[in-house]
Specification:
Blueprint (H helix, E strand, L loop, with lengths): L8 E6 L7 H12 L3 E6 L3 H10 L7 E3 L14 E4 L6 H10 L2 E5 L13 E5 L4 H4 L7 E3 L24 E5 L6 H16 L3 E3 L6 H10 L2 E5 L2 H9 L3 E5 L5 H9 L4 E5 L5 H11 L3 H12 L6 H10 L6
Parallel strand pairs: 1-2, 1-4, 2-3, 4-5, 5-6, 6-7, 8-9, 8-10, 10-11, 11-12
């Protein structure tokens, strides 16, 4: 963290079992690509988050826990500060701006009024980013070319498509709400009753999850960070919406026939719609076509573009 001549980057985010690991997961890509960076995490369950980071190969010197939402900061004076947060208030963020050299916001849902910040980059990686920011400035980095994905998703081969659907990747995110646990149990019981081999990512790093996705013929996934990783691998997916912030990317995938949308998590006919999705993706040629289009959506270099554009560093791999 103290290498002479290098720009230090603090990455402020949040996560845990109560709110999920999506923010932490994508911020890990910064640590993977840029060694002079450190995570600052607000988390209620530090023990579980520490276990998650250990599995991801993140050493203890690369992160710390602070309630930065309540103005508890490390030394951010004249530092570059990357912020991926839905929970931080404008008061807290403006306080950071007063001492930081530069703020870099990563926002996939247009969370706040960025006109309040005088020295900030704004990154929105969604397909509709330019519609969300019609009065953008040159420091706005918009569109899926800036999507942050972990390093295992950087270079990939074309997805192998099998004739029959046998392996199904199942994930509804990392939070542990009782309703979601019940939904996963219902889906799992149905899939096993039809003799599908269900692949559930558990205690895996980015390479492990990527390898599991490559084995999958199709996936059933929430519309968060995981569905974007699935798209990068080229896995045709039956998607489920769990939160409003998942809809911008889901809408693009739906409108371009790149996912079979089963509905919201609380829809009465969700399981029936998942069954329809399974029938839909039995078509080998359809899966082959969708897979190719999905892999062309992102190139896995979004984090590199962010680092090079905001820090002026020449990181190539």
């Amino acid at each position: 963290m103290g290498i002479k001549g290098k720009k230090l980057l603090y990455v402020l985010t949040e996560g845990g079992k109560d709110i999920g690991y999506g923010h932490i997961t994508r911020c890990i890509s910064i640590l993977q690509f840029y060694p002079y960076s450190k995570l600052v995490i607000y988390a209620k369950d530090k023990e579980n988050v520490s276990k998650f980071l250990k599995i991801q190969g993140i050493s203890k010197d690369r992160y710390l826990f602070l309630n930065w939402h309540s103005l508890s900061f490390p030394n951010l004076r004249n530092r570059y500060v990357f912020i991926d947060s839905y929970l931080a208030t404008e008061k807290v963020l403006l306080s950071i701006e007063k001492i930081a050299k530069k703020l870099i916001f990563y926002d996939d849902f247009k969370q706040r009024n960025y006109k309040l910040f005088k020295k900030a980059y704004v990154i929105n990686p969604t397909f509709y980013a330019k519609d969300l920011f019609p009065y953008r400035k040159k420091n706005y980095l918009l569109g899926p070319k800036y999507l942050m994905l972990r390093k295992a998703f950087y270079k990939l081969k074309p997805k192998k498509i099998n004739k029959k659907v046998k392996n199904i990747f199942l994930s509804l995110g990392g939070s542990s709400h009782n309703i979601k646990i019940k939904l996963i149990s219902e889906i799992l019981n149905f899939l096993k009753s039809k003799n599908y081999n269900v692949l559930i990512p558990k205690n895996l790093n980015d390479k492990g999850i990527k390898d599991l996705m490559e084995k999958a013929d199709i996936a059933i996934s929430a519309g968060g960070q995981t569905i974007l990783e699935l798209a990068r691998v080229g896995v045709p997916t039956i998607s489920i919406a769990l939160a409003d912030n998942q809809m911008p990317n889901l809408k693009h995938l739906i409108s371009n026939n790149l996912t079979f949308f089963a509905g919201w998590w609380n829809d009465e006919f969700l399981i029936e719609n998942i069954k329809k999705g399974l029938e839909f993706y039995k078509d080998y040629n359809l899966r082959k076509e969708v897979s190719k289009k999905l892999q062309n959506l992102f190139d896995g270099k979004g984090t590199l573009r962010i680092i090079n554009s905001t820090l002026g560093e020449r990181i190539t791999s």
